[in-house]
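Table S5 (text form). Sequence records supplied for joint modeling of the four-component complex.
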Amino acid sequence: MARYGILTSGGDCPGLNAVIRGIVLDSDTGLNDFTYVGFKDGFWGLVYGETINLDRSAVRGISKEGGTILGTSRFGPYTEPDGGPDNIKKALERIGVDGVIAIGGDGTMAAANRLYEDGIPTVGVPKTIDNDLEATDYTFGFNTAVEIATEAVDRLRTTGNSHKRCMVLEVMGRHAGWIAMYSGLAGGAHAILIPESPESVDQICAWVTSVRDRGRAPMVVVAEGFTFPGMEEAHSHKGLDGFNRPRLGGIGEILAPIIEERTGIETRATVLGHIQRGGVPSAWDRVLGTRFGFAVPELIADGGWGQMLALRGTDIVRVPFADAVGHTKTVPLDFYGEARAVFG
Amino acid sequence: MARYGILTSGGDCPGLNAVIRGIVLDSDTGLNDFTYVGFKDGFWGLVYGETINLDRSAVRGISKEGGTILGTSRFGPYTEPDGGPDNIKKALERIGVDGVIAIGGDGTMAAANRLYEDGIPTVGVPKTIDNDLEATDYTFGFNTAVEIATEAVDRLRTTGNSHKRCMVLEVMGRHAGWIAMYSGLAGGAHAILIPESPESVDQICAWVTSVRDRGRAPMVVVAEGFTFPGMEEAHSHKGLDGFNRPRLGGIGEILAPIIEERTGIETRATVLGHIQRGGVPSAWDRVLGTRFGFAVPELIADGGWGQMLALRGTDIVRVPFADAVGHTKTVPLDFYGEARAVFG
Amino acid sequence: MARYGILTSGGDCPGLNAVIRGIVLDSDTGLNDFTYVGFKDGFWGLVYGETINLDRSAVRGISKEGGTILGTSRFGPYTEPDGGPDNIKKALERIGVDGVIAIGGDGTMAAANRLYEDGIPTVGVPKTIDNDLEATDYTFGFNTAVEIATEAVDRLRTTGNSHKRCMVLEVMGRHAGWIAMYSGLAGGAHAILIPESPESVDQICAWVTSVRDRGRAPMVVVAEGFTFPGMEEAHSHKGLDGFNRPRLGGIGEILAPIIEERTGIETRATVLGHIQRGGVPSAWDRVLGTRFGFAVPELIADGGWGQMLALRGTDIVRVPFADAVGHTKTVPLDFYGEARAVFG
Amino acid sequence: MARYGILTSGGDCPGLNAVIRGIVLDSDTGLNDFTYVGFKDGFWGLVYGETINLDRSAVRGISKEGGTILGTSRFGPYTEPDGGPDNIKKALERIGVDGVIAIGGDGTMAAANRLYEDGIPTVGVPKTIDNDLEATDYTFGFNTAVEIATEAVDRLRTTGNSHKRCMVLEVMGRHAGWIAMYSGLAGGAHAILIPESPESVDQICAWVTSVRDRGRAPMVVVAEGFTFPGMEEAHSHKGLDGFNRPRLGGIGEILAPIIEERTGIETRATVLGHIQRGGVPSAWDRVLGTRFGFAVPELIADGGWGQMLALRGTDIVRVPFADAVGHTKTVPLDFYGEARAVFG
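The corresponding structure-token record, covering 1376 residues in total, follows.
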């Protein structure tokens, strides 16, 4: 009988609890001879051997809860003084854990890979709200974020139309514009601005103006990582001392006054923020999380240490950590081109 | 046969379209001999005689749509150069409209009262997201805003719990804290900060700390109009030139770094903003809007010019404009006291 | 220091947990010197002295959960062999409980009144999905049910319009048509059929036909307790043996084939059923439940045994059991008349 | 300049309007020289040349609306007297339409293929709530149905837990159990019953009993096409005349009383019905529909008559009708096995 420890690391994400539950239910099926325990607050719990009991009753009803019952943190297993493979091996031995199941994003998978290469049996489950992991078609959490962002677009449009305003919605996506692209398409935005494709203020204002000229209220969805030529300058203001200083606020709050000034259309920004990543997961994310969870014991039983699960089409597949980490999946330009063709 | 013109003025609000539909359906019942027309963009349409056709097909299915099909604006019938009672009377005569149905907030009702006193037949329907009109138990829009804000609280809590963060949610409410109070109670916030009851930073941090000490993630809901002693100073920063200058951002963004610094608990602010006021109205707001709408033709048929509708208990009642305007309904201190007793 | 026991009885209802939490939070405020315990499964737990521990951690986060953490049943404290006041007094003494807080509908309040008259200190909190208690403006659970039913109307309308079908939705309401009335008004139904106002099949079909003739898909909302002249006959079929026998199914399933046959319009029935009463409560119901909960310790502290809480306007008030029980609050005919005027 | 006609056929499905909008927006991009028109009510409009104007303003805001703005029907282009290729060709010529875009399920694609083989330029977009088309990973509408069914599971569980009842939810899926499988997994059902895998009443009752024995309320999700050995007999009752006669009601209503009788656990059935297929589409379904819509003009521009679009992984691909029709995609047994391992 083997005992494995689960950790969730990095930003929280709807679907984490479904993965945990999917894994733990295995201990009741009799298919494998495994039991499971949770590490508290990500790699912190791994390094200090702080665990949470995980049996069937501990995971009852959790797949519909946001966040993670294990807690999470940005604690790095190699960067913190008490970390490192030797300490972790000792901790695992002390608490009687035979291997690590790491659920997290690209950074977590890189750390998991290093643990694996340092001789600690480790498997991974990919997680990112932003959907920007190359190795998998989709990650859980993304679907929920898109649903929430789309509802925000739907709500803002009615205000925009009633007041003839341009509404700008800033959504997550530092390196890839997936949430902006999906919620913008779903909500019928007139411009979708993503990091993959910088656009000039002139172009953005041309889109906005053309919508107004058709008698509609322009709706702009912008990913937080979008940039435009001249942004830095626009994003600063001259102090009384004559020096330029950066303004507070994100890209949405930078763009709105520029659009308003250039087009003469009253413009309002909304920053969706943390609301995108918490709360009840969509059914899709619960299913994806559950399927990843079901697949973990199988992966371990097959001796698949050093591998990460991924979704390809409708199948759960396995990818070596080494092939998975470090590749950001951005929105392909032809996908963007399709959407762009109908802007304005 | 008489013809009446409907206008919606001020900020948009879920339920406006239900009122419009409720009124217009009257023209099909044969109960009264009235027809209806809409004024474009609030008092602007009244002053310039710009109207929108309103028959049964124009209002089909609109009660479930946010915003207002008539458009709205903050155009004042007395403050704009082309306004004033004489011009408005001429416009009404020219387009053949016998009376005005004004749907709006306190400012709109005050203007409607002035129109009435200047001899223009006018009735009113109260509207405010903030629920701060004294004359009525509830206004439509408020319920939808509370549902949206509560969902945000629910979502933020899971993130807070996963990361052991303090989450601060800023909701609408410049003069009254109704949305904060209701969404905070519904979401189980550990502190609800409202304009009616300034609290010191020490008190807020004591609540936050006591939650953390119980092992929970503190959830703070704050109305945009909340203030605390020393807020102005806290809300500024010393420039390189040695002068203090106001920071951008609302109360949520002011409070979060202060809480973090004082308590040592990582703290994040979310500003709900425009999402609170757009989109599909709750069933409650559609019913309240519809009932107000049904009651307007009756009010006019009874010659009730100069009056506004209101909700008292489960009844739609009538209140003279003169009694209704200028009274802000704030959260009573004993209501706040009940909630405050369980903070922290 | 006194100790009081809470029970939830009858059908489950969104908002019950908010009441329980609201009461229990009192024990932490220091305002009163009370502690609380739960009775398992309604009056069953009272009779058998089966309790559930209720401290702050037991009620954490429950106000957003449907159902009741205490369990519920239709067990009657007087009708079951082990019940009766003497047994109950003994059970209370044995487990050290000084008074009973009964949360339930009309039947529960009647039983609570009898307990009170038999010398057992008892207070009540009203609960019914159907909103048919005369003593209170609204009960929690009703608002959630209306939101769910309204979403169903919204969904069915798009199917009806696409297929040019008449859609019939059956909602709860055995003795009063509140859910049908509110969800029908909110969803813009073309006919709302309630127990308070039997309508003939001819009348119903006239409404349905007039909608079709305007090119729309008729939407009918019917409360389960609605009847029409000749219903019994329609609701039976002649067996091979020549005898009439009742058909299975509720009023929706009875009406749909009759409407289809009489009007020639394809007609489909949907029975919403249990979905109306479970799951996440609306913010409104959580607030109402919480306020009732807050008011219970105060009521007890004031010695208010034999009384029930109620909502009047925006106030929580107190009503003697004797005045509250046995009065069904039906939809007033003038309310129905307003809605009826726009049918068809 | 060419002109193409769009039709939607078969049951309505969330996402249809997103497809229509996606296609029509092409006419504004200048990428192709195409214009579009809609056929009324599916193949009926094709046969009789009844069209609906489709320009940008006609498709404004429709992607968030359920159903289809074109109307739909089960009218068959070959089975109806006025149908057949010659009549259709004449109709197309008369109204100046150069090709047909058919959006529908397996039957629609089969008819589209026949039209294509009979010389009428036709392309297809797959549509089915049930997700049972082999050629595509997912169809739009399925995701929305799963979200709705999952919310129903969530709601029913709280009622089940409060009353210690077994709750049975019947969802769509005549030939394939995808909706049951996904909503059951997402909602944490204790048994998921699908057409692909008949289970005995003994097995079902063993699952139900084991849940009860753990102190939980059993939740069963059953697809409408599920069968069990002996079902026919169970589904009939002996009349006074001594003959067996089929009972009304679907599989949920058949199973519930059997479970109750066999296990002694109070059991209630809910039939979700039409609610699953109407109303606001999920963001996912709007994106999938929009992407299909964007891909249609490209497909036509490439001369891809006789082909259907499909989703493979994250790509929109093309499949000849001949390869696509007639293959039902059922839930693979290993997928079912994963879920089954945790039942009870």
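Note: The CA atoms of residues 22 and 293 of chain D lie 4 Å apart.
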